[in-house]
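Loading example: each entry is read as two labelled lines plus one structure line.
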Amino acid sequence: MPAECVIGVDLGGTKLLAGTVDAGLRVHHRTQRPALADDPKGDAATVLDALIAVVDELRSTAEMEVVAVGFGIPALIDQTRGVAVMAVHQPLAEVPFGAIMSERLGLPVVVDNDANAATLAEYRFGAARDSHTAVMLTLGTGIGGGVVIDGELFRGSQGAGAELGHMVIETDGPPCFGNCPNHGCLEALASGSALAREGLRVARAAEDSALGQALAMGQEITGALVTELAHDGDRAARDVIALIGMRLGVGISNLVNIFNPDVVVVGGGVMAAGELLLEPARQVVAQRALQPSRSHVRVVPARFGAESGMLGAAALALDAVEKRAPA
Amino acid sequence: MPAECVIGVDLGGTKLLAGTVDAGLRVHHRTQRPALADDPKGDAATVLDALIAVVDELRSTAEMEVVAVGFGIPALIDQTRGVAVMAVHQPLAEVPFGAIMSERLGLPVVVDNDANAATLAEYRFGAARDSHTAVMLTLGTGIGGGVVIDGELFRGSQGAGAELGHMVIETDGPPCFGNCPNHGCLEALASGSALAREGLRVARAAEDSALGQALAMGQEITGALVTELAHDGDRAARDVIALIGMRLGVGISNLVNIFNPDVVVVGGGVMAAGELLLEPARQVVAQRALQPSRSHVRVVPARFGAESGMLGAAALALDAVEKRAPA
């Protein structure tokens, strides 16, 4: 099908990334919007309208016929009903997402958890290729998780498994974000939101640092800003990234002991920090995880960076098209 | 094979339990010894001799022919080589356990991780029967873990997975036990060893309690003693059990979010505390785990109590006999 393509859409907690993707998983067009509010009590219609607008935009510019759309959304999906059962960072709980989108777009629609989509892309085409057991963490507004065992995405008894970001590593730690009732979760300590929280704390304490000066000049201390200043060499910003990396390492150590994976892939927007984040994490794994697992595992960045989720959503859509095709 | 039986042996960190078991998984004789030292740097030969002695004792009293022996040992087993790769609580690292035992006993021998054996028994015949995804924790000297996914024990890429006891729930928590390099693990906070550690702390602080009086009279504060006093109604001892139960609940919440299991089975010697331990754990799960998983999961005691591991080892031996039988 040379003249056909699909659209992959990755809806995160605060960012929306979508692309037109062909059967070889090449991206022809991409678009990103920061527009969606991180408000789990907000309006589902607003979110759905924004998603429709993005798909329509890509469809109008596509050089090939768009034959299906894949969505990765930050929610637990009941695959039997096509309903988003629980959503920590978006107002999508109990929304029959797949049916609504398919009806409004007039196209076959596939929907899965955003981290599952990212994991699928990395397993099939990226950093987890050729592994038997693979674990992925997507560090964004929240932390998503995905697990592949023997070639299959692990979903648990109801499709609600692999919520790896909501593993407590600090029993009396800070409250988690969004709809999560827990505290001291990996997400509460090592997500992009946690990076911003720690960045603000350090900015207040280290007035002479570039981070402190940014705060004094009225800049909002975001994870992206901390990362930028860390890459520029600011010591305070680097310490914040290293702290997040060490916490990440505790979470990864747990996952290494639990899953004995061949590879742990770290993706999502926070991975813009690169080795400044990943190297402290690896050091913690080397100190804390059990043998033989800790010597065996590779802890690596996602091959597709912040695009894993979008590509995975596209891959799901391509799968659906293939199943639809006459034998 | 009405006149045949197997022997199942469960080697824990400090206890050794063995039994003669028929094809219907009925136990005909059982024997228990507290003799083996919890010394991972001790002498492997001493441990192996003790295991041989137990098997010989059961064999001499068995009314049926013993046709195979199954061992559950607290170690990671490399099933391709039959070697214990890593052992937190026994001096068995790099010991070719299966080959030695088979040679010395002159019988087919099967060996697996002790918690995997326990999980298998509960999945096939006990509290996890008819589940799709099941998680088991065995609370003894240490904490063992087992996971069944879609009817199969989950082992990870090297057979070293499901080390659920070495999941950190307190990043700066107390050092773990045995050979574990980590600290703040579930095992460090909620095992039988942790129960004894907390019991001693509370006994020193609460001099008027039955626990404090036991300490003053020179009794060793063990997990078993704390449990006994808690059942007798001592408030201090009950508080210790409840504390361990709440920590256990944090660990179970993590496992509920990670695996979305139908059931979490809690076994091992510490489960002598029963609902005094399990009810606080369930309350924490109800507060901290995500939906829909937390409403779906059952958190239940092992059906076979402290005998799950021994029965699972016997079941593995029965499987081996069945495979051996002519078609």
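The domain at 131-302 of chain A is CATH 3.30.420.40 (Nucleotidyltransferase; domain 5).
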